[in-house]
Amino acid sequence: MTDTPTPARLRVVLLFGGRSSEHSISCATAGGVLAALDRTKYDVVPVGITADGAFTLQPDDAAHFALDATRLPVVDDNGTRVRWPESAATREMMVVSASGEVSSLGEIDVVFPILHGPYGEDGSVQGLLELVGLPYVGAGILGSAVGMDKHFSKTVLQQAGIDVAPWITVRAHEWASRRAVIEEHVEELGWPVFVKPARAGSSVGVSKASSLADLAKAMEKALAEDNKVLVEAAVVGRELEVAVLGGRDGGAPRVSVAGEIVLSGGGFYDFESKYLGAPGADLECPASLTDAELAEFQGLAARAFEAIGGAGLARVDVFLTDDGFVVNELNTMPGFTPISMFPACWLASGLSYPALLDELIALGVAEQR
After folding, report:
1. What are phi and psi of 106, to 5 degrees?
2. Paired sense of beta strands 10-17 and 42-49, if any
3. How many helices (H) and strands (E) does the chain have?
4. pLDDT at residue number 6
5. CA 232, CA 195: separation in Å to the nearest integer?
6. I need a labelling partner for 95 at 20 to 30 A (CA). Which of 138, 157, 165, 230 fits?
């Protein structure tokens, strides 16, 4: 009788942190993934990008990156420097220790870039990985870039016949030179409006404005994050989300059951509500929808995912109004923190957190973009 050979473990680079304002959320997401990855299947190489952009080898310790309202996690610069493959002819990565010693991190099977915001979720890191020939989880260069830029994602969705909230896009120089004209356009949208950096997520820099005085403050806040800002008409309706997984072997995208954000007190789903447990917002999953409503939402989400060139995963956020569904936005690398909607929707659909990670890694290895 011969022993059954043990399958080789995949070597996975978990890439997190980064230069964006969502650095800490990326670290918290990484903490959740580190805790859930099955170490009988994977050898994990945690690569953290510091706020200054240095690629460092970090501890394989989920607790080190736990989300805490009193101390948001960060990537500390420990002096190490990770070196990507020198060409697409090899998948070996190296690390230089703080003392200058060079050692191998082994041949990499796939990179899991859990990065949120610019310099990570916007196609920049995806371009790096394409250049060095490493497979990775998630959308490709174009899908990442379109998904990250709210102006272009709304433009693409609208062209695909998908309803989005009315909006105008304002650049920093326009706000400085044509403010009165822009204010007129905003008033045509009707109050209140939401003011958002075009290329940021996690509700960073987002404000609700109910007057011109509010608008001035909101623009200042948003322009601190990005030189391009969206001003959107408020949409009255239920706030719903679904999670999307790319199809296997060229198949159609798969869509979870829906979750709902239930707000109280007249606020909106801001950074504190999403990640720090601030009162005023509750997540309900599965959401109470009829079979017909859920089927329509799932079909809409799959269409939106494919319209922007999505791959691997995305979360699709909508409003359910009296006139039907209005897509708010797509997130091509949604958070995986313990209170995030993406894993919660899949859990309610029968896919556990570890199994979800298995599926995402399998999609990344297969490079189905």
Report:
1. 90, 175
2. parallel
3. 11, 16
4. 55
5. 6
6. 138
* Token output for 346: 């899949």
For the stretch 46-84, pLDDT in tens is 999 999 999 999 999 999 998 877 788 999 999 999 999
Measured between alpha carbons, how far is 212 from 210 in angstroms, rounded to an integer? 7
Domains of the chain plus CATH, in order, are 10-136 (3.40.50.20), 147-164+235-366 (3.30.470.20), 167-233 (3.30.1490.20)
Kindly state the tokens that stand for 319.
């409003």
Between residues 269 and 364, which one has the greater pLDDT? 364
pLDDT of 282-322, one tens digit each? 889 999 999 999 999 999 999 999 999 999 999 999 999 99
Burial of 125 (0-12, 13-18, 19+ CB in 10 A): buried
pLDDT at 271 over 90: no
Q: Which residue has the tokens 């009829």?
A: 290
Is the model's pLDDT at 268 over the cut of 60?
no
Q: Percent of the chain scored above 90 by pLDDT?
A: 84
245 Rama sector, left if φ>0, alpha if ψ -120 to 50, beta otherwise:
beta
Which residue matches tokens 């990770």? 82
| Residue ranges of E strands in the chain | 10-17, 42-49, 55-57, 81-83, 92-96, 102-107, 110-114, 167-171, 193-197, 207-209, 228-233, 238-245, 254-263, 281-284, 313-321, 324-331
Q: Do the Cβ atoms of 193 and 215 come closer than 8 Å?
A: yes
Q: 99 is written with which tokens? A: 């003392």
> Helix, strand or coil for residue 223?
helix
What is the Cα–Cα distance from 186 to 192, expressed in whole angstroms?
Answer: 10
> Rounded to an integer, what distance in angstroms lies between the CA atom of residue 220 and that of residue 226?
10
* pLDDT band at residue 368 using 50, 70 and 90 as cut-offs: low
Q: Which pair of tokens denotes residue 108?
A: 């990499």
Cα distance between residue 6 and residue 4, in whole Å: 6
Give the pLDDT band (50/70/90) at residue 44: very high
* Total residue length of the chain: 369
Strand runs labelled E in 246-364: 254-263, 281-284, 313-321, 324-331
